[in-house]
Amino acid sequence: MDEKARKLAAAKQEAGHAAADMVEDGMVVGLGTGSTVYYMIERLSVRIREGIHVSGIPTSYQTAMRAREYGIPLTTLDDHPVVDIAIDGADEADPRLNLIKGRGAALTREKCVAAASLQFVVVVDEQKVVNRFSAPVPVEVLPFATRSVMNQLRALGCVPVIREAVKKDGPVITDNGNFIIDCKFPEIPEPRALEIAIADIPGVIESGLFCTFMEKTTLVVGNEKKCRIITSADVIP
Ligand code: 5RP
Q: For the domain 137-207, what is the CATH code?
């Protein structure tokens, strides 16, 4: 591993471990998806071995498999429609704690779990904290409606691209059986307005814009040595 990759992994580990330490005995925990969440799962498994009892709700097959491997008891959102704490990664976070998520194509389940949670802890490294979004916005789409949705996304000002799979020919198929369209906007001046406009398109399942969770969000920003915490109290009105 080169020095840059080692520092990035260390930053993710700092954030993931700090988030796992926010979990309390008896909690139902939303388990997000991705490489930063991986470190949270790693640390949560240690805390379980030390004696706390938790149940996890995985947001993807990847996370369910990892959680089982690490001995984290699993449950479902149907069994626990109110979640004590959800811990998830993000692709970008802006100063109002709006997020772009979905690089791992798990955005729909991640948004369902975040919405059901009393606390939403987001684990990122410093590079992902931005003043203005520039990452593409992933949109999960019903395959039946792909071309019509793409036309309507284009009308919102983006260049939409169907996400291609790696080690499979053709599109990525999400855990829900749908396609992902990555939407590159030249700028996103009003993220919440865009989230609403995308959600309004028939055939859209969800977008990776997460703009309604600011009040319950704790952003844990890791660097290679430690982390800093940003909450809604730090957001300038
Ligand atoms: C998956 C996600 C991930 O949480 C997000 O892409 C961050 O992943 P990573 O921690 O690997 O950078 O939204 O759908």
A: 3.30.70.260
Query: What is the CATH T-level fold of the domain 3-131+211-235, as seen in this structure?
Result: Rossmann fold (3.40.50)
Question: Boundaries of CATH 3.30.70.260 in the chain?
Answer: 137-207
Query: pLDDT of 167-196, one tens digit each?
Result: 999 999 999 999 999 999 999 999 999 999
pLDDT in tens, 116-148: 999 999 999 999 999 999 999 999 999 999 999
Q: Look over the chain and give the mean of its residue pLDDT values, rounded to a whole number.
A: 97
Side-chain-side CA neighbours of 165 within 13 Å: the count stands at 10
- Ligand 1 centroid vs 200 CA: distance in angstroms? 24
Question: Is the CB of 102 inside a 6 Å radius of any atom of ligand 1?
Answer: yes
Would you call 52 exposed, middle or buried from its count of C-beta atoms within 10 A (0-12, 13-18, 19+)? middle
Asked if residue 206 has its Cβ within 6 Å of ligand 1, the reply is no
pTM: 0.97
